[in-house]
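Box 3.1 A note on notation
Throughout this textbook, protein chains are presented in two layers. The first layer is the amino acid sequence; the second is a token string describing backbone geometry. Keep the layers aligned when reading.
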Amino acid sequence: MRVAAIDIGTNSMRLLIADYEDGRFKEREKHINTTRIGESVDEEGIINDDAIERNVDALEDFTELAREKGCKQIWAVGTSALRDSKNSGEFLQRALEKSGVAVEIISGSTEADLGFMGVLEGIQDKDENILVVDIGGGSTEFIVGNKYGIKFMKSENVGALRMTEKFLKKDPVDKIEYMSMENHVSNEIDDTVGEICRYNIKKVVGIGGTITSVAAMLAEMEVYDMDKIHSSIITYPQICELLKTLKRLKTSEKMMLNGLQPKRADIITAGVGILEIVLRKICFDRMIVSEYDNLEGLVSRKISI
């Protein structure tokens, strides 16, 4: 059966079109649009009119594409920015009227759960404990578990767009502003890291736009290749070197980097910074990149109901 799943994230809206048969994915294609629904949500508490309009239009485009491709079902979820905004109801109503799809706002724990389910769809060894890290625009999800179930999950309000808006005002990044962000992220995730380190984690898997962008930049990928990114390895020394480079570049220069979507250039330093802090604090020197994420998890859950 051909189905579609849409994730309305703080920074980007993503679409998965997939053929799902006999309990597994046969074919997949993904589309992304940097729609920034979370623009100013952290500061003002509401989604501004421009962001609502952008995202309603993008949702309509994605649903039309899904229908043209023959999708029998279309599911859509909203995450951090929609959870936090006071006027998310206005967006939901306008989105339904224009696209015909009812968007479900999911909790941080559900977002983490779907991300973990998606990762399990794309890995071979599912017996050992893994940590899944999903760095989004508004939040970062941490999930520990294996094929027998999830043992720990936590959503922290530290994301690439949120941290950029809150701390990184100058271009290129100012050292003092970066240190303030680093201290904030470190303090916010301290308790979560303490919980994670109680488990016997064998590997760390990364999902989400920040982490796939890191893998694409390290590979200097001119055209993004989902299959080459999936199961690739990024190491802590590579992340540190990349972060050092990003800190000294202006946004206009970052936009020219192979592997990085130009619309992500202004928030990538914060995203890579969060990734560096996480790996340093959990004492892991490498991460496996997964192109199976909460979109695949959403399809898997909906079909199994």
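The first strand starts at residue 2 and ends at 8. The domain at 124-289 is CATH 3.30.420.150 (Nucleotidyltransferase; domain 5).
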